[in-house]
Amino acid sequence: MTDDPDMAAIATWVDGRLPGLDGPVRLHRFQVGQSNPTYRIQTEAGDYVLRRKPLGTLLKSAHAVEREYAVQRALQGTVVPVPRMHLLCEDAGVIGAPFYLMDHVAGRSFDDPRLPNQSPSKRAAIMDAMNATLAAIHLVDPVAAGLGGYGPDGDYYARQIARWIKQYSASATEDMAAMDQLIDWLQANRPADDGRRTLVHGDYRIDNLLFAQGGTDVVAVLDWELSTLGHPFADLAGVIMQWRMPPGPDGRGLAGVDRAALGLPSDADFIAAYCARMGLPGIDGFGFYLAFCFFRMGAILQGVKRRGLDGNAANPEKAAKLGAYAPEFARQGLLAAREG
């Protein structure tokens, strides 16, 4: 029994609009990620990637492959590196869920920010490229890119906090006091809207980037499911949030790591480099943005856990393991809040 996509049905729907799909193909499912199942399709005419929503009952507005397709298609005329988009199918009747097809981009993926097997100078260059790409995303003119209506107007954090409270409540499996406290703190300490409104990725991490084979440049930014128009500091704080987790395959963080010895930037250095690229003197009250990111990721992980229990996760065993981190993200969010 498999839930792999029906390639014959896809070829019929494509109807010759993409070369190679009407002939023999090889299908490989990527095992990384817990969001939208993703497959490499190898054809005689070239390789494609198919990304679809999970099968089964889903939370409203989750797994938005339609938005992923739209934003990456819009970014193809900008300096932000994204795969070339080809076709979007919004008809769930074709393979059981909406999906899109894009080019396969050859590149290196790093799921450990310690960047093992890299020299200190290469680590520094990779992290600097990550920083430069984040600034490039935030410097895109949404209107010029055709993304002027990609997100609603108004207070981004008010909107996001309300959204993720709703998502968390819908996927909760047990009481979590730290999460309740964090939600209360965020609602009471939300800063006034400063008017910043840029494209935001929503899940900007090193494992959502592809780097050049043998080089340090970013060749593709992936996984745009949570992207919208909003406040750029949420993306920056998301990077720092991940680094505060324990190192290793589960936490994928840098807590306790001697970064200077490895050639990796400190939190302060990474923030300063970003501010220089954005023309900012610094960021006041960074603790709020960091606490918000811990809250949002805690809510996401709770959703991963719930999908695993409901049988809708891409990898149920990994879903259970990742979901167990939700309380730790809530705890770290409270620590960030106290730091200010």
UniProtKB/TrEMBL annotation:
Presence of keyword Transport: no
Keywords: Kinase, Transferase
One GO MF term: kinase activity
Gene3D superfamilies for this protein: 3.90.1200.10, Phosphorylase Kinase, domain 1 (3.30.200.20)
Residue ranges constituting the Aminoglycoside phosphotransferase domain according to the UniProt record: 28-250
Record Pfam families: APH (PF01636)
Name of the featured protein: Predicted kinase, aminoglycoside phosphotransferase (APT) family
